[in-house]
UniProtKB/TrEMBL annotation:
Signal peptide residues on this chain, from the entry's feature table: none
Cited Pfam families: S1 (PF00575)
Chain ranges passing through the membrane: none
Matching NCBIfam families: PRK06299.1-2, PRK06299.1-5, rpsA
SMART domains (alphabetical): S1
Keyword Ribonucleoprotein annotated: yes
Function as written in the Swiss-Prot or TrEMBL entry: Binds mRNA; thus facilitating recognition of the initiation point. It is needed to translate mRNA with a short Shine-Dalgarno (SD) purine-rich sequence.
Species for this entry: Rhodovulum marinum
Domain S1 motif residues, every copy: 20-86, 104-170, 191-259, 276-346, 363-433, 450-518
Family named by the database record: Belongs to the bacterial ribosomal protein bS1 family.
InterPro entries: NA-bd_OB-fold (IPR012340), Ribos_protein_bS1-like (IPR050437), Ribosomal_bS1 (IPR000110), Ribosomal_protein_S1-like (IPR035104), S1_domain (IPR003029)
Biological process (GO), any one: translation
UniProt-recorded Gene Ontology molecular function terms: mRNA binding; structural constituent of ribosome
Name of the molecule in the record: 30S ribosomal protein S1
Length: 554
């Protein structure tokens, strides 16, 4: 009996499969959405029909089919074996996928669901995660057409213990695209002109499909003229003729151009736009240093800020011209090597200083508003937006400039006389005091150096006396009060005395007369000597002067 029992137990251990293993069974019936499977060993189990279907497909199972199932438990509460087709497929799939991952081989699967950050993929029993960034070489907006479609994937990462698999569809596409690109690129040569379809438009250019490989058409190579955005001249889906400019064999990048198939307008610039010729152009761009003006499609010139206005020196170009405005410009310089044209805007208008010099000769009276007050004078606004300056010394005949300027305020209307126009230095000198006659000039108009004039004493000081002539004040120093030192005393004069003096100097700048009583006396003595005697006649000076005085009385 002991031997029989041992043999019986041994037969059970051999014949009865272990729970958690994959066993082979036969479908003996299909009913109520389930398949009844005989797994042998007098055991039957039930499996839902959906476990025999691939995602998005109908189940394919019939009575008599042999299938592999996973044995969870030998006997459940109903006395049946607890089996699963899904788990069997998963175990089988994991074994297969691990071999593919180790050999870096592709695996086939189908996208069947969307999850956060990507999609779920059925790899024949095992579920993998497909990140959104790995679906295609470019972002996919609508993944609907890809759902349920059997296609190859590359396994990026897998962890059987955690049940994680990450796959990529993009890696497959890039590999196939690389092969395709290499084949197409091998047939292209730089300089070829071919047709392509605009596939995508960006800020910096457009991608053109050349029949399986894309080339970049940069915005600067679309036209000879300035193109602000590629969408100005291209649209997605449009067929365009392009030239292959450059091919990078290592990166498989292709640079394309459209303008290279057109005539370069710079070849005829010098003939069309001679130096100092005037042309009408359109402002295309405004910067801090000037404005770009298009003379013709593909030919732009720069109007530097210094060449924009005769009068507006420190103003932003945007306050003088506006984008798309049509303006007249003069060609100042052409550099075909650097593809540069220097233009001038102000040269198309007359120099306002030249115009002013013609219409306002020296001596013309003008009127304008005080624009600015500085430590050296006033700036007066004149016609054509130009300014004239009244120097401190030209404000008043009587007051010092620093005092006279205190009477003026910004915005005051002032009349003045043009005293000088310097066109080259763009400078106009004005004078307010010139509106009135010069009292000093009028007072000393008939007076010359050496003349004897009569003055009135107005003040007595220790150093001399102050006198007045025709309203002009002068000062006679103590040393000039008399020929005799004993008579050089200011106190011998009184305010109101009339005194004859000799003019020794006329200073128009300081507006002062140099006067001297001493000089008059010396001159009179000299004249008397010349008329009534000589140094060797023996006559005394008193005799001579007495004779001279008697002669004056006759």
């Amino acid at each position: 009996m002991e031997e029989f029992e041992a043999l019986l137990n041994e037969s059970f251990e051999i014949d009865t499969p272990a729970e958690g293993s994959v066993v082979r069974g036969k479908v003996i019936a299909v009913e109520a959405g389930q398949a009844i499977i005989d797994v042998g060993y007098k055991m039957e189990g039930r499996v839902d029909l959906k476990e025999f279907a691939n995602p998005g497909e109908a189940p394919e199972i019939a009575v008599g089919d042999e299938v592999e199932v996973y044995l969870d438990r030998v006997e459940n509460a109903r006395g049946e074996a607890s089996i699963s087709r899904d788990k069997a497929r998963r175990e089988e799939a994991w074994d297969r996928l691990e071999k593919a991952y180790a050999g870096e081989a592709r695996v086939e699967g189908a996208i069947f669901g969307r999850v956060k950050g990507g999609f779920t993929v059925d790899l024949g029993g095992a579920v993998a995660f497909l990140p959104g960034s790995q679906v295609d070489v470019r972002p996919v907006r609508d993944a609907g057409p890809l759902m349920g479609l059997k296609q190859p994937f590359q396994i990026l990462k897998m962890d059987r213990r955690r049940g994680n698999i990450v796959v990529s569809r993009r890696a497959i596409l890039e590999e196939s695209r690389a092969e395709q690109r290499a084949e197409i690129i091998s047939k292209l040569t730089e300089g070829d002109a071919i047709d392509g379809v605009v596939k995508n438009i960006t800020e910096y250019g457009a991608f053109v499909d050349l029949g399986g490989v894309d080339g970049l058409l940069h915005v600067t190579d679309m036209a000879w003229r300035r193109v602000n955005h590629p969408s100005e001249i291209l649209s997605i889906g449009e067929t365009v003729k392009v030239q292959v400019i450059k091919i990078n064999k290592e990166t498989h990048r292709i640079s394309l151009g459209m303008k290279q198939l057109q005539d370069d307008p710079w070849d005829t610039v010098e003939a069309k736009f001679p130096i100092e010729s005037v042309h009408k152009g359109r402002v295309t761009n405004i910067t801090d240093y000037g404005a770009f003006v298009e003379l013709e499609p593909g030919v732009e010139g720069l109007v530097h800020v210094s060449e924009m206005s005769w009068t507006k020196k420190n103003v932003h170009p945007g306050k003088i011209v506006s984008t798309s405005q049509e303006v007249d410009v003069m060609v100042l310089e052409i550099d075909t090597a650097k593809r540069r044209v220097s233009l001038g805007l102000k040269q198309t208008m007359r120099n306002p200083w030249e115009v002013f010099a013609e219409t306002h000769p020296v001596g013309t009276q003008v009127e304008g508003e005080v624009k600015n007050i500085t430590e050296f004078g006033l700036f007066i606004g004149l016609e054509h937006d130009i300014d004239g300056m009244v120097h401190l010394s030209d404000l008043s005949w009587d007051q010092r400039g620093e005092e006279a300027i205190q009477d003026y305020r910004k915005g005051d209307m002032v009349q003045a006389v043009v005293t000088e126009v310097d066109v080259e230095k763009e400078r106009i000198s004005l004078s307010v005091k010139a509106l009135e006659g010069d009292p000093f000039a009028e007072a000393v108009g008939g007076v010359k150096r050496g003349s004897v004039i009569t003055v009135a004493v107005t003040a007595i000081e220790d150093g001399g006396i102050e006198v007045e002539y025709e309203g002009m004040k002068s000062f006679i120093r103590r040393s000039d009060l008399s020929r005799d030192r004993s008579e050089q005393r200011p106190e011998r004069f009184q305010v109101g005395d009339k005194v004859d003096v000799r003019v020794t100097n006329i200073d128009n700048k300081t507006r002062r007369l140099g006067l001297s009583i001493k000089a008059r006396e010396i001159a009179e003595e000299k004249e008397a000597v010349e008329q009534y005697g000589s140094s060797d006649s023996g006559a005394s000076l008193g005799d001579i002067l007495g004779a001279a005085l008697k002669g004056d009385d006759k």
